[in-house]
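Appendix B, example 12.
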Amino acid sequence: MSLPLILIGGGGHALVVADAALTLGFTIVGFFDDDAKAVLSGGKPSAPWLGTLADTTPDKLAAIAKRTGEYSFAAWMFALGHLGVRRQLLTQQLAALASQSVTVIHPTAFVSRSAKIGNGVYVGPHAVVHTRAVVKHHAIINTGSIVEHECVIGENSHVAPGSVLGGRTRVGADTLIGIGTRTLPGIVIGTGCTIGAGAVLIREVPDGAKVVGVPGQVRG
């Protein structure tokens, strides 16, 4: 019996999350998005629109679960990339549903048996989460990214495709690590940071900083 899954978001990131979830045997019940005609509404994979992001309340999700007739709760997962919107939903209507958030790990990803993965985490195709790494709740480890040994990825952070984080790198919550970023081992990246695509980080990044370039320079 497959587990019904509700996706929060229906755009491009939702396509890859849905594809991985279906591969793992989930059934996509539908998605919430402010755009009823978001890309997940048509083509393959696809799913029905369930309502706007404001509709993602405990009562609404419970009613959807009841309709499935198989489970007493509705498993859900973020499938949108905007970290600020995700954080807002986490601290408001979805706060009471944290325990119902599921983790989706693509079957081609490698996750060490000593790594720790939180609730609601997405690990994409060919990604690596290595020995003793920690990935906290609702983080994204996207396609082909490498999280080396003893790294810590903060809650609701996104390691974008093709990034390589050297061993013992620490990433704070709500931080975007842009496509193709590289870090030297042991680098500390703060909370709420934005690291531009292709940056190479050789020193600590303070909270809220925006970093671009090679080597990475703080620009805000």
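The CA atoms of residues 6 and 29 lie 5 Å apart. The two ends are 50 Å apart (CA to CA).
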